[in-house]
Design goal:
Elements lengths: L1 E7 L3 H12 L4 E5 L27 H11 L4 H5 L1 H17 L4 E2 L7 E4 L5 E4 L2 E2 L19 E7 L7 H10 L3 E7 L2 H6 L8 H8 L5 H12 L4 E5 L9 H9 L3 E4 L6 H16 L3 E4 L3 E10 L6 E10 L8 E7 L9 E4 L2 E4 L6 E2 L23 E2 L8 E2 L2 E3 L2 E3 L15 H17 L1
Parallel strand pairs: 1-2, 1-14, 2-11, 7-8, 7-9, 9-10, 13-20, 14-21
Antiparallel strand pairs: 3-6, 4-5, 12-13, 15-16, 17-18, 19-20
Length: about 425
């Protein structure tokens, strides 16, 4: 099988690179081992929340320049602040053209989203039906609502309205809690392990259950300026919250739940749909088990380089997959793009060179559980064209993108989705050039 490009990894970085390449007329196959980390994400896209000195970021352009000074090994710094901004703006345009209805922009700076525990977190883009709170230049929330009703599904364990209410009250919002159910949810509740956000959404999205949902929303909205609900509706009907807003004559907004995330899973499905619509070939539940490298000469730098000649995968046996270019977007430890054992840490597919890995295992983690853990910065080393290295030699027809990269902490710095989108488009541009 021959393609122009093979993308390894079916998360945000993998799909972003693949769709961008398909739109330029290249043939593209994408190998996905299993569920991507999008299924466990908030559904919002963080670009840069905090700097290494722990100061919060709201002016994103200034934040990138500050980051370049404080952390030259960060992927944004390797690409450069100006290039990162250019690619992020292209990502905003691309997401909109792919049907991802997101609020927020680089030019406006970070806004605030609500975490599953009611904390306000700076973020770049948020789904249209989620809680969106503008922030001033100092990061202070500019609340559009004073009185809020929290409406949740009875016995839904992945969202605690009392904890969220306490956080909202601390923000000066008068908050009340409400619950509802319907007969179809009672049937689903018989299996507690299935009473999760996506399955609940599949029930509530059904037109037959619309009367129960509308009645509950209208009742909760009577003495409130807005109704907040856990994100367990709108999986198959992304406009459902907006439709309910019209019926209740009050804004209905969703808050992400504990994993698995309905908003994240919906985002994954939207990207997958766009990939297939553009003619991509999806090889799901497949992984690379062998590959062949040949020596080459990198004319641009004069240094010794390697080229991937062919791949062999678990599902295709002796049938090789041959491509001119490849994108590695397999994620970090969570997605098994990086592996660790008694012998150390390694990149899972090619054994690529890594950065920020201490020699001693005792230095991989800190005693403070919520501290900035060193292992979060482990990952693949790249150059400014997103090309990785193997034993010091560049792989000329391989680009790396997303959480498999090293040099940043996606949790503490709040930049995981931004790095995924920006480096994916950087990889696509490098291939197209």
């Amino acid at each position: 099988m021959r393609f122009d490009v093979v993308v390894l990894g079916g998360g945000l970085a993998g799909y972003t690179a693949a769709i961008a390449l398909l739109e330029k007329g290249l043939s593209c196959a994408l190998l996905s081992v299993g569920q991507s980390s999008l299924h466990f994400s908030s559904g919002s896209m963080d670009f840069l929340r905090a700097l290494p000195d722990e100061s919060q970021v709201f002016d994103l352009e200034k934040g990138l320049h500050d980051l370049a000074r404080q952390d030259p090994g960060h992927p944004y710094s390797i690409l450069g602040p100006e290039k990162t901004l250019e690619l992020a703006k292209k990502a905003e345009t691309a997401f909109a053209s792919w049907g991802l209805e997101m609020l927020g922009s680089l030019s406006a700076g970070n806004h605030l989203r609500l975490s599953p525990f009611g904390k306000l977190l700076p973020t770049w883009l948020s789904s249209k039906d989620t809680v969106f709170i503008p922030a001033d230049a100092e990061g202070r929330p500019e609340w559009p609502w004073l009185k809020i009703a929290l409406l949740t599904v009875k016995d839904f364990l992945d969202f605690n309205p009392e904890i969220v209410a306490a956080q909202l009250k601390a923000q000066g919002r008068a908050t009340s809690c409400h619950m509802f159910t319907c007969p179809d949810l009672e049937i689903l509740r018989q299996n507690p392990s299935e009473f999760r956000s996506v399955n609940i959404a599949r029930v509530l999205d059904q037109e037959s259950n619309r009367p129960f949902l509308t009645e509950a929303v209208k009742k909760a909205a009577q003495n409130a300026d807005a109704v907040f609900m856990p994100a367990c509706l709108g999986f198959n009907r992304p406009q459902l919250a907006m439709e309910l807003s019209k019926e209740a004559a009050k804004p209905i907004r969703l808050i992400p739940t504990l994993a698995p995330s309905m908003i994240g899973a919906r985002l994954n499905n939207q990207l997958q749909y766009q990939f297939l619509k553009n003619g991509g070939v999806l090889m799901s539940k497949d992984r690379v088990v062998d590959f062949n490298l040949v020596g080459d000469q990198d004319d641009s730098s004069g240094s010794s380089a390697l080229t991937i000649e062919r791949l062999h995968t678990e599902n295709h046996g002796d049938i090789p997959i041959i491509a001119k270019d490849h994108v590695l977007a397999t994620g970090s430890f969570f997605s098994q793009g990086l592996l660790s054992d008694i012998d150390g840490v390694r990149e899972a597919v090619f054994g690529l060179d890594l950065v920020n890995v201490p020699e001693s295992r005792s230095d991989w983690a800190l005693g403070e559980f919520f501290g900035s853990q060193p292992f979060a910065r482990f990952g693949v080393k790249i150059d400014a064209q997103t090309r990785p290295f193997l034993k010091g030699r560049v792989l000329a027809n391989l680009k790396a993108a997303g959480l498999v990269l090293g040099g940043f902490d996606p949790i503490r710095q709040g930049c995981g989705a931004g790095v995924a989108a920006v480096t994916a488009l950087a990889a696509a541009e490098a291939i197209l050039s």
